[in-house]
Design goal:
Elements: H1 2-29, E1 34-40, E2 46-52, H2 59-62, H3 76-84, H4 91-97, E3 101-103, H5 118-124, E4 130-132, H6 134-139, H7 145-158, H8 161-175
Parallel strand pairs: 3-4
Antiparallel strand pairs: 1-2
Helix pairs in contact: 1-3, 1-4
Length: 181
């Protein structure tokens, strides 16, 4: 319930930012404005996750499912959106739909399932994925896949309201510091 209330308030407050970002994307590279991708959530079920498009239109065909520093597929506007995490704001709609939480492990793409043992996958999928998580709050884009996996599993095992509040505070601090890819 807290997720839904906060998501509604954030969407209302940040709607001018979303509109400005949408216009910038449209002017720079045209539609579509939103990027939709199947991700895996609670119980390993698939859902469509929303982001503001920050990459060229054929990004999936031009590279891997993850991005790297100085990824050539990221647009000029996309760099700003990613650095400020504005590209993640449409995921507030995923929170309202019940697919995601504000805090939890970032949702994986189906191809990442092979990175987990069966036991770790069960733990990972025991919580709703989040817009921000322990790996993003502590390491942002500097996390190696192994570090991200370990922090996602740690969150799934140890999550509570206190940890969620700390992760949210750490995330806000990170947003004003070192940039993301």
């Amino acid at each position: 319930m807290l997720d839904v209330v906060i998501a509604i308030v954030l969407l209302a407050l940040l709607s001018p930012v979303l509109v400005a970002a949408a216009v910038a994307i449209a002017v720079e590279s045209g539609p579509p404005i939103l990027f939709r991708q199947v991700r895996l959530g609670l119980g390993g079920r698939g859902f469509t996750m929303f982001k503001l498009r920050s990459m060229v239109g054929n990004a999936a065909a031009a590279g891997p499912y993850h991005t790297a520093q100085d990824d050539h597929r990221i647009t000029g506007v996309g760099r700003l959106l990613r650095r400020t995490s504005i590209d993640e704001l449409p995921q507030l709609l995923n929170v309202l739909r019940g697919d995601m939480s504000l805090v939890g492990p970032r949702p994986d793409v189906p191809q990442q399932r092979v990175l987990y043992s069966q036991a770790d996958w069960a733990v990972r999928c025991s919580v709703r994925p989040g817009i921000t998580g322990l790996a993003q709050a502590l390491l942002r884009s500097d996390a190696t896949p192994a570090e991200r996996l370990a922090l996602d599993l740690r969150y799934a095992r140890e999550h509570d309201l206190g940890l969620d509040l700390r992760i949210f505070a750490w995330t806000l601090r990170r947003l004003s510091g070192k940039a993301s890819n």
